[in-house]
Backbone:
């Protein structure tokens, strides 16, 4: 006996039947889109699966497109509006928020610095991007530029001593 079931997912107009069992492999399938007595915004799908002996099984389901997969992020912000506290520091971070897509399982994250977590920290100034993928293989990307303040330089002069540029001590005569 040949049996088929539909667990259909949609992303960029792609879908496929799953859970075909019995009969004689290999299987072929033919999908039919339309309105087969279903109501609402979903698209009805009928699948005909044929095994190597010509036996057929039928399955129907609704193809419901998930909400658009989108991401946004908020970098850390320090005084003066920079994203890293001091020139050369590595205390920047980016907090990402993901909405939409097929969220029945966790999203996957692929950062340009190799991180695979939703949020990243211990970042230096520079450019970062993340690609987020949902359970259907749909993806979205976001890019961020973290800034740092200019190098802190100071000079102070007294009667006998002058301290200039990064702790250079000179004696005045």
Residues:
């Amino acid at each position: 006996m040949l049996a088929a079931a539909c667990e259909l997912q949609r992303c960029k107009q792609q879908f496929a039947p799953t859970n075909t069992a019995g009969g004689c492999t290999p299987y072929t399938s033919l999908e039919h889109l339309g309105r087969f007595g279903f109501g609402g915004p979903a698209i009805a799908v009928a699948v005909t699966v044929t095994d190597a002996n010509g036996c057929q099984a039928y399955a129907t389901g609704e193809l419901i497109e998930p909400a658009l997969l989108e991401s946004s992020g908020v970098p850390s912000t320090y005084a003066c509006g920079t994203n890293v506290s001091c020139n050369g520091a590595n205390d920047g971070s980016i907090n990402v928020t993901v909405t939409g897509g097929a969220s029945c399982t966790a999203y996957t994250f692929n950062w340009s610095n190799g991180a695979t977590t939703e949020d990243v920290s211990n970042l230096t100034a520079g450019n970062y991007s993340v690609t987020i993928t949902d359970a259907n293989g749909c993806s979205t990307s976001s890019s961020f530029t973290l800034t740092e303040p200019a190098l802190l330089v100071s000079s102070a002069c007294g009667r006998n001593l002058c301290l200039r540029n990064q702790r250079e001590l000179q004696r005045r005569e």
